[in-house]
Specification:
alpha/beta, Nucleotidyltransferase, domain 5, 2 domains, 5-stranded mixed sheet, globular
């Protein structure tokens, strides 16, 4: 069947057509209207601007996705839309457009959780991947570990207690003058620095848990940078990037390793925007080799927010009969 996916949870408006079923997991189109250049002027996402940009783009890119796939709206068997979590104003644009389209054309509608969609991106490139498995979702708003029992049944077993890894990368990147999004720039710069140059606290919460806390790490890094500047010298940016990256990667590996032991699964899925970080990808790949666990991570284009992953997740919601109607509302809450 052909599924139309719609994504508008943050600063990317996306529409995609995915063919699922009968052994097929195929992306026919995946249009993304990025707002990075707009928000770069402000050093981060401005919710009101993001919402207005979604309104301007959503209809146009939906029909672009249909044209690229060579389909008509009447060919679509299901519409899947991100309903939570995210920026509430941004989510409402996608949800209301999806409801209108589904109602007008009498097409079944399913609501998709953004986190489940990130994980579902792995299905599109790995047809052999099936639950159960352990999933680590790392993004600007999330750093969480899940026990995935089946395609729609997730259980959160570890999470950040404050900020997310992606936000932590972007904050320090912005402080040392990196262009938005700072995380991508820090990823590259870290290869040029000494990862042992600066002593920073681990974001891995001590004790018998799988949780993180990135606020203390951010504060320590900011204090170091400000202290050096007050002395009249600019700290070495490459050393900051390398040291900061290493402590985050080490914490993620530590908690993910414990999660794999706890769930006793033989598959790990890495997903989310920060899954594009080469240091995290490399470290987790080495971990999985040591533990003899199969490692799955989407390609770079499917790590960031996109509608193909929403359509893939929506397919399994459709199979479970989890349909919704015009009463659907968006929610900023991260609930399943």
């Amino acid at each position: 069947m052909y599924i139309l996916g719609l994504e508008s949870s943050c600063d990317e408006t996306s529409a995609a057509i995915v063919e699922m079923g009968d052994g097929k997991r195929r992306i026919l189109s995946n249009i993304v209207a990025s707002q990075i250049e707009t928000h770069r002027l402000y050093g981060g996402v401005v919710p009101e601007i993001a919402s207005r940009a979604h309104i301007e783009a959503v209809s146009r890119i939906t029909y672009e996705a249909l044209d690229e796939a060579g389909l008509k709206i009447s060919d679509i068997g299901c519409i899947a839309v991100t309903a939570n979590p995210g920026l509430i104003g941004a989510l409402l644009v996608g949800v209301n457009f999806a409801k209108s389209l589904a109602f007008a054309h009498k097409i079944p509608l399913v609501a998709v959780n953004h986190i489940k969609a990130h994980v579902a991106a792995a299905y599109l490139e790995a047809p052999e991947l099936e639950p159960p498995f352990t999933a680590l979702v790392v993004s600007g708003g999330h750093t969480s570990i899940y026990a995935v029992r089946n395609y729609t049944d997730f259980s959160e077993i570890g999470t950040t207690r404050d900020d997310a890894a992606g936000e932590a990368f972007d904050k320090i990147g912005r402080t040392i003058g990196m262009p938005y999004p700072g995380g991508a720039a820090i990823d590259k710069l870290a290869y040029e620095g000494d990862s042992k140059a600066i002593k920073l606290p681990s974001p891995a919460i001590v004790g018998d848990n799988l949780d993180f806390s990135f606020s203390g790490l951010k504060t320590a890094a900011l204090n170091y940078i400000n202290s050096e500047r007050q002395k009249g010298s600019e700290p070495n940016h490459a050393d900051i990037a390398a040291s900061y990256t290493k402590v985050i990667v080490d914490a993620i590996v530590k908690k993910t390793s414990a999660a794999i032991e706890q769930t006793n699964t033989k598959q790990l899925v890495l997903a989310g925007g920060v899954a594009a970080n080469s240091h995290i990808r490399g470290a987790l790949e080495e971990l999985c080799k040591k533990k003899r666990v199969s490692f799955y991570r989407p390609s770079m284009s499917l790590c960031s927010d996109n509608a193909a992953m929403v359509a893939a997740a929506g397919y399994f919601e459709f199979l479970d009969g989890r349909f919704t109607d015009t009463s659907l509302n968006a929610s900023a809450a991260d609930n399943f």
